[in-house]
Amino acid sequence: MVESLLEVKNLSMHYDTLDGNVDAVKDISFTVKSGESFGLVGESGCGKTSVAMTLLQLQPDNSVITEGSIKLDGKELIGLSENELRKVRWDSVSIVFQGAMNAWNPVVKIGEQIREAMREHYPENSKQQNINKINELFKMVGLDESISERFPHELSGGMKQRAVIALALSCDPKLIIADEPTTALDVVIQDQILNEIKKVQDLLGLSLIYISHDIAVIAEMTDKIAVMYAGSIVEIGPTQEVFKSPKHSYTRALLDSTPSIRGEKKKLRSLDGEPPSLINKIDGCSFSPRCPTPTTQCKNQSIEMRLVKVGDDHFADQCCSGCVKNE
Ligand SMILES: Nc1ncnc2c1ncn2[C@@H]1O[C@H](COP(=O)(O)OP(=O)(O)O)[C@@H](O)[C@H]1O
Ligand SMILES: [Mg+2]
After folding, report:
1. How far is the CA of 179 from the centre of ligand 2 (A)?
2. How far apart are CA 52 and CA 280, in angstroms?
3. N or C, which terminus of the chain has less Cβ within 10 Å?
4. What pLDDT is attached to residue 260?
5. Looking at ligand 1, which atom is closest to the CA of residue 17?
6. CA of 129: how far to CAs of 12, 94, 170, 173, 204, in Å?
7. Phi-psi region of 35 (alpha: psi -120 to 50; beta: other; left: phi over 0)
8. Is 277 in the pocket of ligand 1 (CB under 6 A)?
9. pLDDT, tens digit, for every residue of 29-56?
């Protein structure tokens, strides 16, 4: 029996560009258990999508995995052939990405497009079996059965994204990766879609990797959270614990710049400055130039990013262990 559905260890990846290597994923490790929901949060450009694509081995041609292991259900994915990978992707993992609702083929009815995916995966199923399953999935994500007979342009953005979730579920994945799935939608619809994803995840006992730049959304959606900065995980732990006692200054800055989800009044502080370029090698803590409370240790060029234990199942970059002591 494999306890973790997904086990990522020391994963590093860069993009090869004319200006140099872009170190988008630096020595990342985390696990996702069966039925667990795991959140990846951080500002735009910190490497979240690169992690998601690397997990599925869908990263672009100019990317190079330099180190690490990705085990899904105990099976190593790095080094598998394209054919083997395709099977793993279909069998176990689905991804819902930000622009997914715009990826529907405009001239084919929605139901037909989902059936096409199901035909490849379950060739033995009859058309009626597939139709029944789609109707069930539509019900789950709050869509009327009649949507099957419509073309993409006849649906609103929210409906299209619900249909994407139904498509993602149609081949019975064990893990769903949702990469900013609601960012392009207005707030009310966003909230509805988040609820649908959560409901479906609970109902089907799926594992979920939820990726967002919005830490408030991650709070609602996940059991465990990893905070990414400049390609590294700087803090990781149970979501409630990280929210209650954030250890890394970047996590605190993210929380301080987000309106409280629990409604308590607090003064919002904006997070000044920009994340560093990932092309240049970063000496010392990558967050120290923006850190409100940097110590000499943080700027120490020989300090290496390393997670240390700061609580039960809770780890933060050693650089901020100084900030922890200052509490
Ligand atoms: N194909 C690519 N070639 C070169 N650099 C890339 C490529 N894709 C992404 N990047 C760079 O990698 C870094 C991480 O990007 P990304 O994973 O998309 O971050 P996020 O999803 O957190 O916004 C960024 O600096 C981005 O510009
Ligand atoms: Mg992204």
Report:
1. 7
2. 23
3. N
4. 65
5. 4
6. 43, 21, 12, 18, 19
7. left
8. no
9. 999 999 999 999 999 999 999 999 999 9
Q: Token digits for 152?
A: 């993409």
Q: Could you give the C-alpha distances from 212 to 52, 177, 186, 286, 319, in angstroms and in order?
A: 12, 11, 15, 20, 25
Q: What are the tokens at 137?
A: 């999935």
Percentage of residues in the chain having pLDDT higher than 90: 66
| Residues 92-123: tens digit of each pLDDT | 899 998 888 888 999 999 999 999 999 988 89
What pLDDT does 321 receive?
62
Strand ranges of the sheet holding 37-41, from the earlier edge strand across to the other edge: 93-97, 175-179, 207-212, 37-41, 224-229, 232-238, 314-317, 307-311
In angstroms, rounded to a whole number, what is the distance separating the alpha carbons of residues 37 and 259? Answer: 23
pLDDT at 26 > cutoff 60: yes
The CATH class of 4-102+174-325 is alpha beta
The domain locations on the chain are 4-102+174-325
Q: Which of 325, 235, 236, 230 is nearest to 284 (CA)?
A: 230
- CA angle in degrees (0–180, nearest 5) for 209-320-285: 85
Q: How far apart are CA 176 and CA 201, in angstroms?
A: 9
Alpha helices in 170-306 (DSSP H): 187-204, 215-221, 239-244, 249-256, 296-299
Question: Residue 108 CB: number of other CB atoms within 10 A?
Answer: 13
Q: Tally the C-alpha atoms within 13 A of residue 58's C-alpha that lie toward its C-beta.
A: 15
**Cβ–ligand 1 contact at 22 (below 6 Å):** yes
Q: Whose CA is nearest to atom 3 of ligand 1?
A: 15
Question: Widest CA span of the chain, in angstroms?
Answer: 67
- Helix or strand (DSSP H, E) at 40: strand 37-41
User: Which of 14-18, 153-157, 299-303 shows the lowest mean pLDDT across its residues?
Assistant: 299-303
DSSP codes joined into one string, 59-95? --TTEEEEEEEEEETTEE-TT--HHHHHHHHHHHEEE
